[in-house]
Write a structure and sequence with these properties.
Blueprint: E1 2-5, E2 9-13, H1 22-27, E3 32-36, E4 39-43, H2 48-62
Antiparallel strand pairs: 1-2, 2-4, 3-4
InterPro entries: Glu_permease_IIB (IPR036878), PTS_Glucose_EIICBA (IPR050429), PTS_IIB_1 (IPR001996)
GO molecular function, one term: protein-N(PI)-phosphohistidine-sugar phosphotransferase activity
Organism: Klebsiella pneumoniae
Length: about 60
Amino acid sequence: TQVDACITRLRVSVRHLAAVDSEALQQQGALGVIILGQQVHAIFGKQSDALRQLLDEHFAARK
């Protein structure tokens, strides 16, 4: 899993798109969810980079 962020979007590369729950992401504050190939773009605004850091820590702990 690869996680990246820009000013407004959290971008996550996923292996199984079926596991992506766009509605749940929106319930957690995403203003929108865009799927491009195997990459999910969740629009969280200025929170995106902080969320990226949390996900990086989460995935690092799982290794």
